[in-house]
Amino acid sequence: MKLSNTTAQNSFKYGWLLSRIFPYIKPYMFRIICGFIVAIPLGLLDGVTAFALKPYMDYVVGKQDWVFHLLGHEFTLSWQLFAFIIPFGVIAFAGFQGVLRYLNDYISAWTSQRITNDVKMDLFHKLIYMDPQFFDENTSGIIISRYMSDPQTASAGIVDQIKTITTSVFGALGLIAVMLYSSWKLALIGVMVLGIAFIPVALIRKRIKAASNKNMVIGGNITTNINETYSGNKVMAAYELQQRQENYFRDQIWESFRVNMSLTKRAAWMSPLMYVIASCGIAIVLGYGTHLITSGQMTAGAFASFVTSLLLLYKPVKTLGNTLTSIQNIFVAMGRVFELFDLKPEITDRKDAIEMKGLNDKIEFKNVYFEYLPDHPVLKDLNLTVRKNETLAIVGNSGGGKSTLVNLIPRFYDIKSGSITFDGIDIRDFSINSLRHNIAMVFQDNFLFSGTIRENIMMGNPEATEAELEQAIESAHLQEMIAELPDGLETLLGERGLTLSGGQRQRVAIARAMIKNTPIVILDEATSALDNKSEAIVQKALDNLIQNKTVFVIAHRLSTIKNADRIAVITEGELVELGNHEELMSIENGQYRALYEMQFKKQEALV
């Protein structure tokens, strides 16, 4: 599945999305509820200043004492006492609000990060078990963007934005309560106008979805470009491709700019429109409020408190509008995240999969067909039997299907039709882990992970003893190299092991395969990229690796091919010849003989 083609189809199914994210929210529900409990008074306290204006204007400015009755007794608060209490009360409430805001922000950040971590870890777990075809079809940039950036946007944002909504809603409710207390007639006008101002938010959500998806694809392409610039820096320098890479990067940056400006052009009118609508509401309130004051239906203090509440109410309503716009972005990201969760690897275990215990007799390919693209077969009706402890060399022209053939053995890909059997049992009947546990592979360009030489070798068998490690190092002819390094086995390798030469990396990979000690070994052009001196050392290591093993070796070197028990010639996906060197050379106009004349004879003459 190509991730760049996905469009977050479920980004408007809010209930479905929330039901999918809820299992990640549930473990932290107590803290989230605490955060919401803190957010409620945090929002309500916004109305305190507005509420305080009414007694301040009516009693302090008007110099009137407040007379009230409680439990049958009459009490009087002088306007001078009011003038003293109200300012300090506002300061005290502001301090209390500051403490609540700190608690709210801390709880929100903690829960958001924990939820994000959980989502990322589960997504990474899914990623590492995807089959090779998934990685063939998707660039590194798209994968990094989808598996790292989207979860951050989706899971970290949802709690934060819900907290903001809670604060804004209760802030608005508190201010509306003050408005109703001051004048229910004016309150109806104010709330109705602000409700109208809120409508534009609903009109922009599809634009946000489209822009968010486009930016996801562009962001993935930019990351891919940076990765390729890093990994292919020598090719870039050798072929003077700097301008090409820079032009591609510039085009993507400007494309992102155009997408964002297109969204801004359509969304930017919301804010001024809301201002205009809110201003119309305020103008109506001022006109009608003046009438209420002059007719004695409302005090000046109540009017001042109402207008302040109305002006303060615009802030949470605007925040709510912006938050809902942001939440649409979050739902788009969530839609993409759960698309990833719903991806299924093409290669999976059968329900009744059995454990592979080793190889006792033979490996058979029966009428095997395989294709990467529909109706473009790579292997066609291939039949082949390899006996236990036999070494089979696979030769043929480039692109003929040699690597494909060996990649089918550990089920990196599944065949379209036919069967591959170990001792008569189809490899699809084995669990994937047990199948691959019995196979060691050495590739042409072996990947070494960041870490020490010891760690990279021990990846073949983490349970290996120190004696087994030493034996693997000796068999791979690594002793001298390790002895020359200041930190020996604990030497840290750079990314992809690039601090070692090609021959050294191959020998580390051979030691990794050797310590795994499997009955089946696959060598995919393991020496083709090496010079003659390095190849001679690596070949000695390979000879140690393949002793008493069933071996499939793709090779371009005559020495490797001649030493094989049999040679399979693969041309255009078909097995055209099979036999040892002498047998194949005796075939008039044979494919192997032609290959020998073109490629191998020159090597023999050089040797």
Question: Features of this protein?
Answer:
four-stranded antiparallel beta sheet; elongated; 14 strands; alpha/beta; 607 residues; 23 helices
Describe this structure in words.
- The protein starts with 13 loop residues before the first helix and ends with a helix.
- The chain has helices at 14-25, 29-44, 46-61, 79-128, 132-137, 140-182, 184-198, 200-203, 205-231, 233-238, 242-267, 270-294, 300-341, 402-408, 432-437, 453-458, 466-475, 479-484, 502-516, 532-545, 558-562, 581-585, 591-606; strands spanning 66-70, 73-77, 362-373, 376-387, 391-395, 417-422, 425-426, 439-442, 451-452, 492-493, 520-524, 550-554, 566-571, 574-579.
- Helix content is 62%, strand content 13%.
- The strands form 4 sheets. It has a 6-stranded mixed sheet with strand order 8-11-12-5-13-14, sandwiched between helices. The chain has a 4-stranded antiparallel sheet with strand order 4-3-6-7, covered by helices on one side.
- Helix 2 packs across helix 6 (140-182) and helix 3 (46-61) packs antiparallel against helix 4.
- Strand 13 (566-571) and strand 14 form a beta hairpin.
- With 607 residues, the chain is α/β, with parallel strands linked by helices.
What would you call the structural class? alpha/beta
Count of DSSP H/I helices: 23
Number of strands: 14
Task: Enumerate the strands of the largest sheet in spatial order, edge to edge or round the barrel.
Answer: 8-11-12-5-13-14
Q: What share of residues are in beta strands?
A: 5-15%
Determine Rg (CA atoms, Å). 36 Å
Overall pLDDT score? 81
Low-confidence stretches: none
* Share of helix, binned: 55-70%
The general outline is: elongated
